[in-house]
Amino acid sequence: MCNLVTKEAPDFKAKAVMPDNNFKEISLSSNRGKYIILFFYPLDFTFVCPSEILAFDTALDEFKKRNCEVIGVSVDSEYTHLAWKNTPVNNGGIGNVRYPLVADLSKQISRAYGVLLEEAGVALRGLFLIDKGGIVRHALINDLPLGRNVDEAIRILDALQFHEAHGDVCPANWRPGEEAMKPTKEGVASYLAKHGAQGAKKGCKKSGCK
User: Fold this and answer.
1) pLDDT value at position 201?
2) Global confidence as pTM
């Protein structure tokens, strides 16, 4: 797997099913000036995938409010994507999701992002946050049985935008409205003097860790 964080996101041109269900060739670079959540999933008409795709669609307005586009990618064709969109949710479909689903039949996009399982011929559950300049700022790769947390994707986007606006860095479990820290020795000391281990513990309360 390649590490793309801090590097320019590999550009691509590929056919996609758009929100209006038309087919269109899109490119990653055409979204320059916006943030992008680019996520890969293994296959249409499978199991964990529809729950993730619908979760991103449910949260789409939150991403849009943050000037962020969501793009999904799998190794299926645009025709299979459309068939899945035309399948009712209660029959295992995804309905009319409101962001593009890209066809990566050649597997070149999945390979460029380091998420392709070569022997299986499908992509792992990769997620990449790309900034307005086209640089990858966050990457997450899950194995096939493990669904992603869409709320965490929004939290990371908020953290990046906060850092860009203020220069402060965001500690563990940071959320908007909470204190960040100055990226200096004194800044870290000041933050830890106020919050100590409590900053780490607040995130554990939700997950049940101690």
Assistant:
1) 53
2) 0.92
